[in-house]
Amino acid sequence: MLGIIIGVAAVVVMIAIGVGARERIAAQIRSLGANLISISPGSAKMGSVRLGAGGAPRLSEEDAAAIGMEIPGVVVAAPLLHAREQFTIGSTNWQGVLRGVTPEYFSAREWRVIAGQEMTPEDNKRVANVVLIGTTMREKLFGKADPLGAAIRIRDVPFTVIGLLERKGQSVWGDDQDDIALVPLRTARRQFIGTSRANPTFVHNITVKFADWASAEDTMAAIRQLLWQRHRLRTGQEDSFMVSNLAEAANVEGSTTRVVSLLLSAVASISLVVGGIGIMNIMLVTVTERVREIGLRLAVGARRRDILAQFLVEAVTLALLGGILGAAIGTVAAIAVGSLAQWPVIIDLSAVMLAIGFAAAVGVFFGYYPARKAARLQPIEALRTE
Amino acid sequence: MALIEVDRLRHCYRVGGGLVWALEGVSLTIKRGEFVAVIGPSGSGKSTFMNILGCLDSPSEGRYRLNGVYVGGLHHDELAAIRNRNIGFVFQSFNLLPRASALENVELPLVYRRMWAGERRRAALAMLARVGLADRARHTPAELSGGQQQRVAIARALVTEPLLLLADEPTGALDSQTGLEIMAIFRRLNGEGLTIVLVTHEAEIAAHADRIVAFRDGRVVSDTPVVQQARSLGNARHLSLAYNNVR
Ligand SMILES: Nc1ncnc2c1ncn2[C@@H]1O[C@H](COP(=O)(O)OP(=O)(O)OP(=O)(O)O)[C@@H](O)[C@H]1O
Ligand SMILES: [Mg+2]
């Protein structure tokens, strides 16, 4: 009985975590913006010679423009710079992520501005000191106050808040995507990042949105090919950049939850088997205690299958009771896990039903032997038993 | 017309390594509507015989024909159907389900007939009324006297309207007054046409039957009709004679 309870509880928790994790990953992929490829300067593999003078990042704005123009299947290619900076308003300080982006970035990430203005190409051209902030940044700096039009200082440079970004939530890697400030790319370069003589328009990363999921591999290969040419790399040389499909990275991340699910399903199946054996024991005792009753039932005309059905029903009832109790405990446990461990859990009624169904199946399976034993009794011998 | 025909019935039990022969060639015919008492000393094979008549056990040798059907070799489901439809069995120890009410106990055979609950209830209540227990339907066996329990058991045996009522020492666990009440019920039922075979140790009880069959060492040693006057006298010379034959 305990085994059934634990088993069913484990099944419920397992499915809740599994579904929750799947939902979370789907949500994260959605928050990334679908169909994204990230290109970053490669840290060359160990033992190989690092390309690029003085380790200067090798990607440039021109690379982004070329990718956007020349490769079919690319919707938009957005260059970006990033840095951690100190944000100040009045006496409030906050350390957060700053990104220098162009308007392309917003369409690549499908990131909307929920209040205020969007970033324009003019902002970039004019190297305007304007900033759009994420919801976390807004809470830290402004609390409940209205941030639009406010002046904030980023590393002591005054900026005007022109817009508020839509909430994105946690990223696949667990960091808060809303703790962010977006400024024009050229502003970021001039005020915070600086330039390099070897590559005056260098960028940290190019985010590429492509049109068709099915051709992701081809698009990535074409990008690699193009960058190869533009950077005049010879065959055999290591790439100096990494091209990765973000949705796939997110899926890899999902495998941790798969491990947890696997572990839970092991616990569930062992407990269900143990519970099943427990039920078999209870039923064997019941049958032995009620041999006389069985004899009497046979004497008044019960067929073997009537007796079989009677004891199967009893075994299934026992198992179902355990199952319902287990489902209740599992639901509570899943919610507890969800709130304590910050795991996303989703409790699905059909999953709970499935778990209870499992319990019933265990009841039938392990109840069959005792029930058959009862049904095979000879009426006269059963009646004679004291 | 013969309801029961048994022919050279033999039955043995396996005890330890050996065999114990409880019946050693019993041949008997019982017609419809007869009221037969089976008597004999302890261990003479009476219960073994009754169990075979009730299709609770099958004989080691010999043939048994019930209502024209040879019972030997029937499938266990067919035997269950015969027990359910044709035979009512009353035991010395009542064998009521302790946790069920009198009504539920009486309903039990009808459950295995796939009868609707309402119909079942009506039939069981009617049967309880016939044994004078209409007002005890909700009582559990523990709340009933021995005689009442046995009447519940009789109602259970008869609720399916069987051809044959078998009773193995039905009064054995009751005092003599209560035993006579049970016999009065049997007499009435027999008067309504029911065939009854009853095992007893008591001459007074056997005197209520129409015919007395005496067993000894697994054989029938006498088979005598009971004359009306003898019954009215109760402890008649005739009966003593039947008993002397056995002793
Ligand atoms: N289950 C059994 N296993 C072994 N031997 C048995 C079994 N039942 C009965 N016997 C033996 O068979 C013989 C006949 O027994 P049976 O119960 O038919 O006698 P009976 O006439 O009903 O006796 P009683 O008047 O005491 O009830 C006895 O010798 C008994 O020991
Ligand atoms: Mg006996």
UniProtKB/TrEMBL annotation, chain A:
Q: Which residues form the MacB-like periplasmic core domain?
A: 1-226
Any one Gene Ontology molecular-function term assigned to this protein's record = transmembrane transporter activity
Annotated ABC3 transporter permease C-terminal domain residues: 267-379
Per the record, the domain of life is Bacteria
Q: Where are the transmembrane segments?
A: 262-287, 308-337, 343-369
UniProt keyword annotations, A-Z: Cell membrane, Membrane, Transmembrane, Transmembrane helix
Kindly indicate where the leader peptide sits in this chain: none
- Please state where this protein is localized: Cell membrane
Q: What is this protein called?
A: Putative ABC transport system permease protein
The organism named in the record is: Mesorhizobium tianshanense
The taxonomy runs: Bacteria, Pseudomonadati, Pseudomonadota, Alphaproteobacteria, Hyphomicrobiales
From TrEMBL, chain B:
Q: Please name the source species.
A: Mesorhizobium tianshanense
- Name the Gene Ontology molecular function terms of this record: ATP binding; ATP hydrolysis activity; transmembrane transporter activity
Residue ranges of every copy of the ABC transporter domain listed in the record: 7-242
The source's domain of life comes to Bacteria
Q: Which GO terms describe its cellular component?
A: membrane protein complex; plasma membrane
Q: Which PANTHER family match?
A: ABC TRANSPORTER ABCH.1, IMPORT ATP-BINDING PROTEIN
Q: Which family does it belong to?
A: Belongs to the ABC transporter superfamily. Macrolide exporter (TC 3.A.1.122) family.
* UniProt KW keywords: ATP-binding, Cell inner membrane, Cell membrane, Membrane, Nucleotide-binding, Translocase, Transport
Spell out the Pfam families in the cross-references.
ABC_tran
- Keyword Lipoprotein on entry: no
Q: Which InterPro entries match?
A: AAA+_ATPase, ABC_transporter-like_ATP-bd, ABC_transporter-like_CS, ABC_transpr_LolD-like, MacB-like_ATP-bd, P-loop_NTPase
SUPFAM superfamilies reported in the protein's UniProt record = P-loop containing nucleoside triphosphate hydrolases
Record-given protein name = Putative ABC transport system ATP-binding protein
